[in-house]
């Protein structure tokens, strides 16, 4: 089973999840799973369609916002903002190969909503993730939102 890392009170990040992890997420009260991994990235990954079916069977919403190693785009950031907004106060689980892309996309979405870049970085770090590769973008998005 994957290790879910608490990033803030409403967001968990994880390496690739399995069907068993969907049940673990449900037990934690997760109401939305965000798949940030492109299909076919690795031969050993559980297909998104299987995760989606298991999530729906468990009463958990599912959205795919795949992020390749090419980086992040504003449509991806906006899709993440929308997904997080629709989840409201309910816990959200984002996953990719290691949890890094999920955390970085969460950070960009938070910045685009006007969150403080230092608080974003601290929350990511508390979950074991480093946002320094996108820190300039976080600063710019946060400044634009404020």
UniProtKB/TrEMBL annotation:
An example Gene Ontology molecular-function term: transferase activity
Domain of life: Bacteria
Residue ranges of domain Beta-lactamase hydrolase-like protein phosphatase-like in the record: 4-112
Pfam families xrefs: BLH_phosphatase
Keywords recorded for this protein, A-Z: Transferase
Annotated SUPFAM superfamilies: (Phosphotyrosine protein) phosphatases II (SSF52799)
The protein, known as: TIGR01244 family sulfur transferase
Species of the source: Novosphingobium pituita
């Amino acid at each position: 089973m994957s290790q879910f890392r608490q990033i803030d009170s409403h967001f968990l990040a994880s390496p690739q999840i399995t069907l068993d992890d969907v049940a673990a997420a449900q037990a934690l009260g997760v109401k939305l799973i965000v798949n940030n991994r492109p299909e076919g990235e690795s031969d050993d990954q559980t297909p998104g369609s299987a995760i989606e079916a298991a999530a729906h069977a468990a009463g958990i919403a599912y959205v795919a916002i795949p992020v390749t190693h090419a980086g992040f785009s504003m449509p991806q950031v906006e899709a993440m903002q929308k997904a997080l907004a629709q989840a409201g106060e309910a816990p959200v689980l984002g996953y990719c190969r290691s949890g890094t892309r999920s955390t970085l996309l969460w950070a960009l979405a938070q910045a685009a909503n006007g969150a403080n870049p230092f608080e974003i970085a601290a929350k990511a770090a508390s979950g074991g993730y480093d946002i320094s590769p996108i820190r300039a973008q976080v600063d710019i998005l946060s400044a634009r939102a404020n």
